[in-house]
Design goal:
This is Histidine ammonia-lyase. The protein has 450 residues and is mainly α. It contains 16 helices and nine strands.
């Protein structure tokens, strides 16, 4: 069980909850903070103080004052009007991550929700009820408004959910689990949707998979080294310590460990003095991508534990400040960085594939064919790899450099952070490239052994 505090969630815990479906619990201390924050909202409503999102409209309507008797209806209207996402739904694992991250952020106690809202989000996780959330429709500023509105629909008993291997109306899942819809009160609708949890959830899931892909790329590269009788000296620790990048040093160490005792590698000068860059520079290129992944991890773990809605409530409600923590720029840039890093794993992998199949670059049968001419061998596998690598270049185009104003220019700079992870398309294609390389390496190694 993972205990949520609003301040200590890490990527390993997210992996346990989202990939291995571990249950969650809420720490008593964080629930006390939630309760205090809610009491502050109740006092604001009772004292008729004018506070954005509690008794005003939203966005360009922020100057419209809402009557006291309508503050609850305001929240319901917000969720229904903003749940207008389009496109295929996020994968269920991303939806689960979205619920987890929104719950954790609300537990910081700056958002003004009732404990009931936090408890329901935990129930969704523990009962494996996951909102069906369309992937498209968020600008990544003012929070992920459209995606998180689809999440919020589930709390009020509307929308659709992933449940027991099927997609069904929320009401159907609630009936089976004995849950009742929640009627939102002042501030709660806004608190649920004004955050970066869609982009962060996608980023977290992509980072977990990218981390696995990066490790896979190393043992696959090691097998390619054997297939081409690569020069092992390129991984000598002195070279990498002389440059000083920790990630480069670590890759070289893992490559030495993977190739330890191999009879298929060579020493400097035995067959050639040095290899081509795609072999010799594995630690430098892979290490640079690992640097990016480490940077992304740092930003994700900060964002996972951040208060990202607006306004935020401090000092028992005596200080309520409208700000911009919902702006997704830190995650947008990090996601663009991660796309580039993962694309480079595939790019250098394709060059190693070319060296395996090109008879002008090795001493092996052309295209590894057992009957050159009669059988084309692995010729077209390299075509597929090249096609995927080229497509990756377009998928790695940065999203964070773009901005289109919204809400009558009130929200005049946005992050586009939710599209920055490229959904999961780019990662899947990159992972496909990695597995194709695995096939190559196994095939080549078998030929050598025979």
């Amino acid at each position: 069980m993972v205990v949520l505090t609003g301040a200590s969630l890490n990527l390993q815990q997210v992996k346990r909850v989202c990939l291995y479906e571990e249950t969650v619990a809420i720490s008593p201390e964080s629930m006390q903070n939630v309760q205090k924050s809610r009491e502050a909202v109740d006092r604001i409503v009772e004292d008729k103080r004018t506070i954005y999102g509690i008794n005003t409209g939203f966005g360009k309507f922020s100057d419209v004052i809402i009557d006291e008797q309508d503050v609850n209806a305001l929240q319901l209207n917000l969720i229904r009007s903003h749940a207008c996402g389009v496109g295929d739904p996020f994968p269920e694992i991303v939806s689960r991550a979205m619920v987890l991250l929104r719950l954790n952020a609300l537990l910081k106690g700056f958002s003004g929700i009732r404990p009931l809202i936090a408890e329901r989000l935990a129930e969704l996780l523990n009962n494996h009820i996951h909102p069906v959330v369309p992937q498209q429709g968020s600008l990544g500023a003012s929070g992920d408004l459209a995606p998180l509105s689809h999440l919020a629909l589930v709390l009020i008993g509307e929308g659709k959910v992933f449940y027991k291997g099927r997609v069904c109306p929320t009401a159907e899942a609630y009936k089976e689990e004995g849950l009742k819809p929640i009627s939102l009160q002042a501030k709660e609708g806004l608190a649920l949707i004004n955050g970066t949890q869609a982009m962060t959830a996608m980023g977290v899931v992509n980072w977990i998979e990218a981390n696995e892909l990066a490790l896979q790329s190393e043992w696959i590269a090691a097998m390619t080294m054997e297939g081409l009788e690569g020069v092992i000296d390129a991984f000598h620790p002195s070279i990498h310590e002389a440059r000083g990048y920790k990630q480069q040093i670590d890759v070289a160490e893992r490559m030495r460990r993977l190739l330890e005792g191999s009879k298929l590698t060579t020493k400097q000068g035995e067959k050639r003095v040095q290899d081509a860059y795609s072999l010799r520079c594995i630690p430098q290129v892979h290490g640079a991508s690992w640097q990016a992944l480490d940077y992304v991890k740092e930003k994700l773990e900060i964002e996972m534990n951040a208060a990202t809605d607006n306004p935020l409530i401090f000092d028992d409600g005596n200080l309520v400040i409208s700000g911009g923590n919902f702006h997704g720029q830190p995650i947008a840039i990090a996601m663009d960085f991660m796309k580039i890093a993962v694309a480079e794993f595939a790019s250098i992998s394709e060059r190693r594939i070319e060296r395996l199949v090109n008879p002008q670059l090795n001493d092996l049968p052309p295209f590894l064919s057992p009957q050159p001419g009669l059988q084309s061998g692995a010729m077209i596998l390299q075509y597929s790899a090249a096609s995927l690598v080229s497509e990756n270049k377009t998928l790695a185009h940065p999203a964070s450099v773009d901005s289109i104003p919204s809400s009558a220019n009130q929200e005049d700079h946005v992050s586009m952070g939710t599209i920055a992870p490229g959904t999961r398309t780019a990662l899947y294609k990159m992972r496909g490239e990695c597995w194709r390389l695995s096939v190559y390496a196994h095939s080549r190694l078998s030929n050598i052994v025979e």
